[in-house]
Amino acid sequence: MTSATLSSCSNTAPRILTAGDGTLLVEFANRIDADTNARVLALAQALRAQQRKMRGLLGVVPAYRSLSIRFDPLTISPAGVRDVIARCLDTPAIAIDTPPRRWDVPVCYGGAYGEDLHALAERHQLEPAEVIARHRAPVYRVFMVGFLPGFAYLGGLDPVLHTPRRAMPRAHTPAGSVNIGGQQTAIASVPGPSGWHLIGRTPWRSFDLRHAQPFLFEAGDEIVFTPISEDEFARIDALHADPGYRPQPRTGGHS
Amino acid sequence: MSARLLVVTPGMLTTVQDLGRPGYEHMGVPPSGAMDPGALRLANALVGNPGDLAALEFTVTGGRLRVLDAACTLAFAGSAALHVSAAGGLPARALAPWQSHRVPAGALLTIGPLERGMRGYLAASGGIVVRPVLGSASTLTRAAMGGIEGRAIKRDDVLAVGRARAPFLRRWVPLRHTAWFYRDTPIGVILGPQQDHFSASEIRRFLNATYRLAPQSDRMGLRLDGPAIAPALGADIITDPIAAGSIQIPGAGQPLIAMNDRQTTGGYPKIATVISADLPRLAQMRPGQPLRFEAMDAAAAVRRLRTDTQWLDTRERELRADPNFPIFPLLHP
After folding, report:
1. Closest partner residue to A148 among B28, B193, B245, by Cβ?
2. What CATH number should be reported for the domain whose range is B187-296?
3. DSSP 3-state assignment of B247?
4. Is there a contact between B238 and A31 if contact means CB atoms under 8 Å apart?
5. pTM beyond cutoff 0.80
C-alpha cells in the first residue's frame, strides 16, 4: 500500500490502528501541520464518497493528523475496510474545484470579552495590541471540529503566541470564546469548562440549533479574524435575535 | 386524544433518549442515545412501537409520573418494582416490569428504585414526543440539546406522548430472558489503538486488575478505581477521534471509558477499546461494582456481537409477533 499519490514530499504510508471491533484509526504523522491535515481531509473526503456507495461504512471523523472510520462489523470486515482505505489512498486526490470557504470572523479582543489578553501579552512581553495584530494576521485553517458540537480547532497560530494551557481550568467560559491553548487557537461553540486562555469573543454563533444545519464551520474552512469594538459586538449579537440571520462566508463553498 | 405524562418525581437522572444521533461526530456531536439500546428496543417492542422511538431513561432511583388526559400503554424495561395508584375505576396495584400495561388517565405511576442494573427504560405507546435535534430526540445535557430543553426532566415537566400506532396488546419478556441484561462476565476489550504507549508490564497490570466503577461515572464516561496505569510515552497524544468504549489513560493513570455522550476527540492515549457487545453491559454496572477485562481479537468480538444481536433480534421478533395470530394451525388438523 502506498500513499505517494497524495503528495510529492516524503510521506510514508499511514499507520492503520484498531480502535475496537467497529472502528479503524488512520494515523498519518505524529505532528500538527497543514500538510498532514490536508492529507487527513483528502482521505476523509474520499472515504465519505465510498460511504455513500457501500453498505457498512458508518462515519468518518477527521482530526489533526488522523481520522477514524466507523463501520458495522456484521456487514463489512476490518480487512474489507482496510481495502477501502488503501484504494482511497492510491487514488490521486480529486482536484477540488471549489475553493475552501473563507470566513471573516468578527472578534472583540480583550476587556470583558478576552480576560486573559493582558496576562498573555505580559507573559510574552508584548503589548496587547501586538498580540491582537499577531493573532489576526494569519489565514487560519479549520483543522478539525471536535470535543463539543461545532468547536473549531484552527491551525496556523503565530509561534510567538504559543502558550501552555492554564494550570487551573475555568469552570465556565462563554460560547464564542476565541482562545489559545498550546500551539492552537480555537473558536468555542458552546459554553463550558476550559483551560485555554481567553483573548476575545465573537458574536457569531458557530453552533445554532435554530437552524436545520446548526454548524457554521467545518474542517478545511479558512478563517480570518476581524477585530471589532464592543459596540459592534453588541450590534452583531443583536442581529442574532432574528432566527433568519446567519453569518455568511466571504468566499468559496457552494450555496 | 393522546396521553401526557406529568413529572411528579424526576428521579436521579432521567432523560429522553432514543437510539441517538450517529453521523455528526465529525462536527463534534456525540451520538448520545440509550446507554442500553437493547433494553430500549425491547421496551418499545412491548408497547408496539418501532424500536427507535424516544423513551425515558431512568437511572437507579426511578421516579413518579402521573398519566394525564387519556389512558396509555406503558412498559418498563428494567429491574424495578412498579406501582400504579387507583384510577379510572381500577384499584391500586403492582405492575410487573418487562410487560405492557394499560394505565388509565389520572393514575400515578411509581417506578421503584432499580433492584439490579443502573438504567431502565419507560416506553409509552406512541413514544415520548419532543422536537428532534439533528434527527434525534436524545438529550445531551452538556450541549443543552435534544430532549426537554436539553436537560434531565424535572418536577412539573409535562411530556407529550405520541399517537399509539397499534392497539393495546398484553406482551411480556419471559423472566428467564431478563437476566441477560445483567450477566456478569469479564468485559471484552481489544488492545489499542495506542497500546504501544504502554509497556508490556503495564498492559498486564491492566488486564489482571479488578477495577471498580467510580461514583463520578456518567453518560459521558465511566471512571474506574483500581490500579493506576503508567503510560511509557507521556500522558498526552495529539488529539485523536474517540470511539465508543475507548479506554483512555489520563495522567493520574485511572482508566476512563468513553460512553454515549463522550467528547468526540481527545488527547489521552487509549490502551484498549471495549468490544461493542459489552458496552450495554458496562452501561448497566453500578458505582462500586467490580469489573475485570479480558483481551480478545476482533474476530472473537464480532462473534460475540453477532450472537448478542441475534439474541436481541429474536426477542424483539417474539414480542412483535401477534399472540392472537395462530402460527401453527395446520400442524394440528
Report:
1. B28
2. 2.40.100.10
3. strand
4. yes
5. yes
Q: Where in chain B is the domain with CATH 2.40.100.10?
A: 187-296
Q: How far is CA B82 from CA A122, A228, B10, B38, in A?
A: 63, 59, 15, 20
Q: Please answer yes or no on whether A146 and B142 come within 8 Å at the CB atom.
A: no
Of A17, A20, A153, the CB nearest to B245: A20
- Using the beta-carbon criterion (under 8 Å), do B298 and A62 form an inter-chain contact? no
Using the predicted structure, report yes or no on whether residue B10 has a pLDDT greater than 90: yes
Q: Please, how many CA atoms are within 13 Å of residue B187, restricted to the half-sphere of its CB? A: 33
Task: Tell me: ipTM over 0.90.
Answer: yes
**Cis amide prior to A62 (ω within 30 degrees):** no
B151 contacts in A (CB within 8 Å)? none
CATH number for the domain that contains residue A34: 3.30.1360.40
- Cβ A61–B194 below 8 Å, yes or no? no
Amino acid at A46: A
**Residues 6 or more apart in contact with residue B305 via CB below 8 angstroms:** A21, A73, A74, B275, B276, B277
pLDDT at position A6 is: 42
At A215 the three-state DSSP class reads strand
Mean pLDDT to the nearest integer, A123-131: 97
3 state DSSP class of B64? strand
- Our CA angle for A110, B142, A71, nearest 5°, is 115
The verdict on a CB contact (< 8 Å) between A20 and B244 is yes
- Per CB-CB distance under 8 Å, the chain A contacts of B309 are 74
Q: Can you tell me the distance from the alpha carbon of B287 to that of A33, in angstroms, rounded to the nearest whole number?
A: 42
pLDDT in the model for residue A95: 55
Do A213 and A107 fall into the same domain? yes
Of A28, A156, A54, the C-alpha closest to A100 is A156
User: What average pLDDT does the structure give for chain A?
Assistant: 90
Higher pLDDT, B323 or A213: A213
